[in-house]
Amino acid sequence: MTFGEIVKISRENKRLSQEDVSKAIEKKYGVRLSTSYLSMIETGMRTNLTVNLLNALLDFFNLPYTAAASLFSRLESIPEYSPGREPATVVLESKAPFPSNTDNQIAIDDLPSDAKRSLNDFYEFLLYKYKTR
After folding, report:
1. Which residues contact residue 49 at a Cβ distance below 8 angstroms, ignoring those fewer than 6 apart?
2. CATH number reported for the structural domain that contains residue 120 in this entry
3. 109 alpha-carbon distance from chain centroid
4. Largest Cα–Cα distance of the chain, in whole Å?
5. What torsion do the CA atoms of 72, 69, 16, 44 make, to the nearest 10 degrees?
6. DSSP label of 67
7. What is the C-alpha separation between 13 and 27, in angstroms, rounded?
8. How many structural domains are present in the chain?
9. What is residue 67's predicted lDDT score, i.e. its pLDDT?
10. For residues 25 and 33, is the Cβ–Cβ distance under 8 A?
11. Which InterPro entries does the entry mention (predicted)?
């Protein structure tokens, strides 16, 4: 299940319209979210979200950060979605702001720059969510 689908189901379970959610997110978190942009997130047309918007959506719907996993990796690389497969691991470039474990690494040099940016954004999101900075 994609992050957009999870957001849509969560919104529908709360019996809120896209407009209700957009207004509530802006009021509570100060993050601008139009109804059309929320619609694009729900349908999977927009997956490159800002850390602030991602955090606001996760908090608003009381979702765990793992709900956003589809934004950062293929489902095949998430162990619970790939039974019988070895879990994929990621190695960040040496200039990454956090340490890596050299025993469990796969180089990511071949990833497009927006994928590398997404990994860094997710790292920043985790630091923010768990207030380690």
Report:
1. 41, 57, 71
2. 1.10.260
3. 21
4. 47
5. 40
6. G
7. 21
8. 1
9. 86
10. yes
11. Cro/C1-type_HTH, Lambda_DNA-bd_dom_sf
Structure confidence by residue, pLDDT tens digits, 75-119: 444 444 444 444 444 444 444 444 444 433 355 666 777 777 777
What six digits make up the tokens of 24? 């509530």
Q: Return the closest-CA partner of residue 128 out of 78, 75, 53, 73.
A: 53
Contact 97, 123 (CB under 8 A): yes
Q: What percent of the chain has pLDDT over 70?
A: 70
Sign (positive/negative) of CA torsion 122, 115, 79, 3? Answer: positive
Instruction: Find, among 53, 69, 56, the residue nearest to 3 by Cα.
Output: 69
Q: In this structure, are residues 93 and 108 in contact, taking their beta carbons and an 8 Å threshold?
A: yes
Contact 98, 123 (CB under 8 A): yes
What is the residue range of 45's domain? 3-129
Q: Residue 119 and residue 40: Cα distance in Å, rounded? A: 21
**Looking at the chain, how many residues does it have?**
133
User: What is the DSSP-derived secondary structure letter of residue 16?
Assistant: -
Global model pTM greater than 0.70:
no
